[in-house]
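Module 6 notes. Inverse folding takes a fixed backbone as the condition and produces residue identities as the prediction. Think of it as a translation problem where the source language is geometry and the target language is the twenty amino acids. Below is one complete input and output pair. Work through it position by position during the lab.
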């Protein structure tokens, strides 16, 4: 019972004496960005009662079942995500180790000794046995040194969790972007193949006209130039498509099944077409990278408290209950038990400036964390503002590109008819063919930009439930 009384005494003393924290009270720094996100001029209008975008799960945001299944596979197999998960487990273990210092450690020790005395007379053997249980050098946290170290480890653990969440959001966006890039390149390949087919027809016609003397060899060579350009584009796109698939395999962490890959981008939607955007910049505080930076700032704030506590006395207590006997069977006999409680005090007087340097380092680390936190918010504001700027004009760009392509296709049809009728020269038809080819490529690029902008906007606003 004595050991339990000693342990209770230690815990009571630590509770009564501890709690004088030397850490500065944490106050979140002011946001170094405008209080409102851009929502005028070219920026899309934002509703003041908009829902929190972080409440939209990625499974709800992406509406193509193939893409959803592919992202699921990536979340399970991606190696970068596994690294992030391992970092979280490391931080959790370190926090638990640091937190254990706030509680007394109770241990048991035992020994058995036999001593023989050799002399001219009969040998004498003396046996001794001991058994002890107790608390060894438990620090009474008078100035919250241990508590602040535990708080710092806890905040680093929280920061690692946010880093993992940021990695998941980035992975989801990267897989979706790579998937759409593959779809767009498939469209570009189809356009180039159609242009090649048209160029082959034009070349055959030009060569036939040259053979019968209706046109010069110049027209044939011009037609061949367009044909070879289309062939080069096809070769480049075939290589790019192979690289797109390799990129998807790397992101997913395994070979992506062909059934989950897109055949073309087309005009259909792959995500929600609108996102709730609030006016206040406070939405940035929900981003995992901002939360991670804030947890790291709080951890450095706690480290200052621990560094300050090093200037003050440290008290540790040891409680022991033991029994000793010359016979093993007498270890638990009456009169063999003993107990002891010991307190130790240490106070730094001269340490060569070690404690001051540690405090200076902690303060500098805290200032660095403040700067990193503010920079993270500024970067987040810039990313959201850029995404909103593109979102505000992308629909107009797409509408213009669509009409441009329709006009270019009509011009091409009319130019061919006029050339075949001998009204216009081949140069006019050739120019119309090049214009239509370029317009079709630009239309695909604009469709891709619109889809990628929605994904990027979803990511920079916090990424939803992951």
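Target side of the pair, the amino acids:
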């Amino acid at each position: 019972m004595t050991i339990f009384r000693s342990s209770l005494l230690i815990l009571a003393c630590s509770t009564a004496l501890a709690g004088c924290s030397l850490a500065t009270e944490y106050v979140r720094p002011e946001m170094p960005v405008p209080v409102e996100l851009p929502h005028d001029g070219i920026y899309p209008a934002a509703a003041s009662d908009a829902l929190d975008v972080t409440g939209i799960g990625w499974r709800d945001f992406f509406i193509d079942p193939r893409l959803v299944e592919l992202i699921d596979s990536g979340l399970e197999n991606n190696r970068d995500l596994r690294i992030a998960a391992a970092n979280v487990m490391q931080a959790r273990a370190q926090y638990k180790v640091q937190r254990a210092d706030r509680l007394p450690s109770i241990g048991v020790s035992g020994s058995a000794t036999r001593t023989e005395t050799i002399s001219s007379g009969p040998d004498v053997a003396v046996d001794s046995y001991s058994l002890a249980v107790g608390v060894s050098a438990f620090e009474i946290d008078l100035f919250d040194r241990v508590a602040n170290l535990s708080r710092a480890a806890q905040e680093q653990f929280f920061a690692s969790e946010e880093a993992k969440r940021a990695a998941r959001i980035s992975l989801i966006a990267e897989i979706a972007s790579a998937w759409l890039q593959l779809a767009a390149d498939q469209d570009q390949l189809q356009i180039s193949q159609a242009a090649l087919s048209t160029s082959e027809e034009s070349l055959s016609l030009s060569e036939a006209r040259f053979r019968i003397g209706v046109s010069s060899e110049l027209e044939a060579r011009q037609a061949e130039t367009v044909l070879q350009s289309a062939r080069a584009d096809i070769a480049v796109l075939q290589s790019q498509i192979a690289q797109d698939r390799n990129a998807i395999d790397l992101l997913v962490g395994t070979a992506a099944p062909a059934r989950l890959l897109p055949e073309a981008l087309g005009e259909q939607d792959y995500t929600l077409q609108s996102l709730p955007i609030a006016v206040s910049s406070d939405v940035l505080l929900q981003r995992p990278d901002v939360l991670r930076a804030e947890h790291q700032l709080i951890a450095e704030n706690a480290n200052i408290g621990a560094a300050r506590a090093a200037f003050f006395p440290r008290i540790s207590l040891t409680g022991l209950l033991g029994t000793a006997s010359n016979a093993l069977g007498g270890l638990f006999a009456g009169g063999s038990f003993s107990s002891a409680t010991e307190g130790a005090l240490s106070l730094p007087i001269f340490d060569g400036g070690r404690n001051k340097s540690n405090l200076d380092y902690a303060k500098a680390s805290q200032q660095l964390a403040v700067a990193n936190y503010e920079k993270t918010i500024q970067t987040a504001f810039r990313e959201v503002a850029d995404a909103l700027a593109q979102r505000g004009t992308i629909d107009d760009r797409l509408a213009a590109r669509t009409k441009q392509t329709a006009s270019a296709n009509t011009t091409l049809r009319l130019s061919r008819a006029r050339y075949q009728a001998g009204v216009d020269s081949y140069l006019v038809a050739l120019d119309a063919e090049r214009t239509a080819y370029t317009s079709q490529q630009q239309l695909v690029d604009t469709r891709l930009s619109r889809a990628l902008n929605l994904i990027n906007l979803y990511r920079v606003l916090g990424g939803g439930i992951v």
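Reference fact for the lab report: The first helix runs from residue 2 to 17.
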